[in-house]
Design goal:
The protein is α/β, with parallel strands linked by helices and about 350 residues long. It has two domains: about 190 residues, Acetylglutamate kinase-like (Carbamate kinase, 3-Layer(aba) Sandwich); about 150 residues, 3-Layer(aba) Sandwich (Aminopeptidase). It is about 35% helix and about 20% strand. A seven-stranded mixed sheet has the order 3-2-1-4-6-7-5, with helices on both faces. The chain has a seven-stranded mixed sheet with strand order 8-9-10-11-12-14-13, sandwiched between helices. β11, α12 and β12 form a beta-alpha-beta unit. α5 runs parallel beside α8 and α6 packs antiparallel against α8. The protein is elongated, with a radius of gyration of 24 Å. The relative contact order is 0.10.
Length: about 350
């Protein structure tokens, strides 16, 4: 087996290019009180990239001076006709600022504006950044059901930021599809990378596991390379990788964001299917995406009348994941013999084989 993954032909896939394409011709509402916008220099390059991308920005702030420092004209919009007024203002400028009166609750006023403007994404800039778990780790992805649980049993960071979480909940229920919470300095990473810098809140997980299409291959190839670099996936030669892509499935969040990959590689001589190259993005670790992919692959294997599905890994952590999903450890002789043809002997000595019978 070759130890290298060949470079993808043509224009390289990048996370930023993917998100910029997703944001093109859309309007983002970015809310930042004065303390969150204390250093406007962090936002200028992000605003410039969005402007070049033909992404419109509605900056919600209480500080007109900061808006002007960001070259963002302030417009007066009557709330009863806010959507039409904003649409007209953004026809002549790539971004505009809507002022929130200082006497109002800033988060509440921004939520009300975002809902009335009917934007699909609202970004709250906050000096504290994303929401933290009770152990201090960042909560990177929260759906509405999880948000309900956080608010019902609020402690730690969730308790301290309860008013903001209430407004995020109201925004999602009011029609905003996604809300991001991050610092101004982390805005570029939050908007343009899979890992993000803060917390992404959505109405639901919107996890759709489906076969990879041709236009998904660049993103899937990028994820495969990440998995190899992190030691979770075995390197594959170009023909082997092509076989994985041809039999690959992706878990898509919010319909288009590729959150994880996996393949069901057929072994026709034995009537078994191999779960291969299963990898989940860092942002979605612990969010159940890997389980969604594995469940879907096992169902496809059953639909194809395979007797069982099997997987091979050198990672105890990955093996534990399979065992939690009804796989059992078996010897190498209990997986198809063709699996071991031209297999790296050094890796075979370390590999853990797992198998799940399919009714």
């Amino acid at each position: 087996m070759s130890g290298e993954v060949q470079e993808w032909a043509g224009a390289p896939f990048t996370e930023k290019a993917f998100y910029l394409a997703d944001f093109r011709e859309r309007t983002l509402a970015i809310a930042g009180a004065a303390e969150a916008l204390a250093d406007p220099a962090a936002l200028r390059p992000v605003f410039a990239e969005l402007e070049q991308n033909r992404t419109r920005i509605a900056l919600l702030t209480s500080d007109a001076a900061l808006a002007r420092a960001l070259d963002t004209p302030v417009v007066a919009v009557a709330r009863e006709r806010a959507p039409g007024s904003l649409w007209r203002a953004l026809r002549s400028a790539p971004r505009v600022a809507l002022l929130v009166e200082r006497g109002e609750s800033f988060a509440s006023a921004c939520r009300a504006l975002a809902v009335s403007l009917r934007v699909s994404k609202l970004i709250f800039l906050d000096p504290t950044g994303g929401l933290a778990r009770t152990d201090g780790a960042r909560l990177s992805f929260v759906d509405l059901e999880e948000l309900d649980a956080l608010r019902a049993n609020a402690n730690g960071d969730a308790a301290r930021r309860s008013p903001l979480l209430r407004e995020i909940d109201a925004a999602l229920r009011g029609g905003v599809c996604a809300v991001n919470l991050c610092t101004a300095a982390g805005l570029a990473e939050e908007l343009f990378s899979y890992a993000g810098s803060g917390t992404l809140f959505t109405v639901g997980r919107y996890v759709d596991v489906r076969p990879l299409g041709y236009d998904d291959f660049a993103a899937a190839n990028d994820l495969f390379a990440r998995g190899v670099d992190e030691g979770f996936l075995a390197p594959r030669s170009e023909p082997e990788l092509d076989r994985v892509l041809a039999n690959g499935f992706g878990a898509f969040v919010e319909r288009s964001h590729l959150a994880g990959i996996g393949a069901l590689v057929p072994h026709p001589e034995s009537g078994m299917g191999e779960i291969a190259s299963l990898y989940t993005l860092t942002r979605f670790l612990g969010e159940g995406i890997g389980g969604h992919i594995l469940s879907a692959l096992c169902q496809v294997a059953a639909d194809r009348n395979y007797s069982c599905a099997f997987a091979c890994t050198t990672s105890e952590r990955v093996a534990g994941f399979f065992e939690r999903n009804a796989f059992r450890r078996v010897g190498a002789a209990e997986v198809p013999a063709e699996k071991w043809r031209d297999y790296d002997p050094e890796r075979r000595a370390r590999v853990i084989c797992l198998r799940r019978e399919l009714a």
